[in-house]
């Protein structure tokens, strides 16, 4: 049975997700305030640069929060940034206890908030629903550890693993509810990456059309710069970027920059653009997560080179046959070499199955 601390932290997690698409590069944070086992306030970090979850939760209280308990998904900040320290606000309002989902490993935090609260006489507990709190902000934690974006493969496939039929027909493998949910996922991530063929065949907008908030940065991998600039990905409704060959001239780069399209120039490895290098460059631009909506060849490259970290997979109850596979190309000879997935969550979407999983590579 779930205990009351986990119950209230789960409610704080539900608050946190409301900030999706509005707070990056900050993490998603939610807070719930409880007094005598009753919720008297709740809030979340609504917009980058504005008040944090703890401050919004305190502001929402319909009773004096003095002596109450605060549940917050991430360690309260203790430094002056775009907003004052949340620890100051917590101390000022004389909270009795603070339950924290997970500590913040950022250099300006790293346990400092916990220590400040303890020194002020507040009882502090950490690690409540910690795994859930870390999964919620996987891009944030990954970026702090590696300096590169978290890479998420997203695909809609048939039950036998096809992205499309042999002729390339793919509209629609999954149902409308799955497609709307996929657009909501775009709102969670900083950028979306596709290959040249996807742009030519589907002319996608790559925007989050079914949810308020900012659109992701739209990235296409295309080494020759041969894409027509009238494609929707270049329509100016969101930032656009092209990963391309380092052989592209400076004058050509200026031409694209003048049209509002930035280039990420990298070398080639075995006929493919060096996406590992590209991700490092993109990470330095502050992009902390990239959802890949590519084809089987791109998925193969990313998986074989151990560059992908998560999979968001929509599986429809259809059988296509040979088709164009999600993971196209040479496979593994031994089961022991295969890639394992650790399921984070799954969801039934009117008969389609959605799976969110982390990728575990063999040594």
Walkthrough of the structure:
The protein is α/β, with parallel strands linked by helices and 363 residues long. The chain has two domains: 1-137, Cytidine Deaminase, domain 2 (3-Layer(aba) Sandwich); 147-360, Dihydrofolate Reductase, subunit A (3-Layer(aba) Sandwich), CATH 3.40.430.10. 27% of the residues lie in helices and 27% in strands. The protein has helices at residues 4-16, 53-59, 86-92, 112-119, 130-136, 138-146, 176-186, 196-202, 250-258, 275-284, 296-304, and strands at residues 30-35, 38-44, 69-74, 97-102, 123-126, 150-158, 162-164, 191-195, 217-221, 240-245, 261-266, 268-269, 272-273, 289-292, 310-316, 324-325, 340-349, 352-360. The strands form four sheets. The chain has a nine-stranded mixed beta sheet, with helices on both faces. It has a five-stranded mixed beta sheet with strand order 2-1-3-4-5, with helices on both faces. The longest helix has 13 residues, at 4-16. It starts with a helix and ends with a strand. The model has no long low-confidence stretch (mean pLDDT 90).
């Amino acid at each position: 049975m779930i205990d009351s601390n986990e119950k209230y932290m789960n409610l704080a997690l539900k608050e946190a997700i409301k900030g999706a698409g509005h707070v990056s590069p900050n993490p998603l944070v939610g807070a719930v305030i409880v007094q005598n086992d009753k919720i008297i306030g709740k809030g979340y970090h609504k917009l980058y640069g504005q008040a944090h979850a703890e401050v919004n939760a305190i502001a929402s209280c319909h009773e004096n929060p003095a002596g109450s308990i605060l549940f917050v998904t991430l360690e309260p900040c203790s430094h002056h940034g775009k907003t004052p320290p949340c620890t100051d606000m917590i101390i000022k309002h004389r909270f009795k206890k603070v339950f924290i989902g997970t500590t913040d490993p950022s250099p300006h935090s790293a346990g400092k908030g916990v220590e400040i609260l303890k020194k002020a006489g507040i009882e502090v507990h950490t690690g409540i629903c910690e795994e859930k709190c870390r999964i919620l902000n996987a891009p944030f934690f990954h970026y702090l550890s590696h300096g590169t974006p978290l890479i998420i493969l997203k695909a809609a496939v048939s039950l036998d693993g096809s992205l499309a039929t042999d002729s390339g027909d793919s509209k629609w493998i999954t149902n409308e509810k799955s497609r709307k949910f996929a657009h909501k996922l775009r709102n969670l991530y900083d950028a979306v990456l596709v290959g040249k063929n996807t742009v030519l065949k589907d002319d996608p907008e790559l925007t989050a059309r079914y949810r308020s908030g900012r659109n992701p940065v739209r990235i296409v991998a295309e080494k020759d710069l041969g894409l027509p600039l009238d494609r929707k990905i270049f329509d100016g409704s969101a930032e656009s970027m092209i990963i391309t060959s380092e052989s592209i001239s400076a004058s050509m780069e200026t031409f694209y920059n003048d049209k509002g399209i930035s280039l990420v120039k990298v070398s080639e490895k075995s006929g493919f653009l060096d996406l590992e290098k590209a991700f490092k460059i993109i990470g330095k631009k502050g992009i902390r997560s990239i959802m890949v909506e590519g084809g089987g060849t791109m998925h193969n490259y990313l998986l074989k080179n151990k560059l992908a970290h998560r999979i968001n997979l929509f599986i429809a109850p259809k059988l296509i046959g040979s088709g164009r596979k999600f993971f196209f190309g040479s496979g593994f000879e031994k089961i022991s070499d295969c890639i394992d997935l650790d399921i984070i969550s799954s969801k039934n979407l009117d008969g389609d199955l959605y799976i969110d999983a982390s990728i575990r590579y063999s040594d």
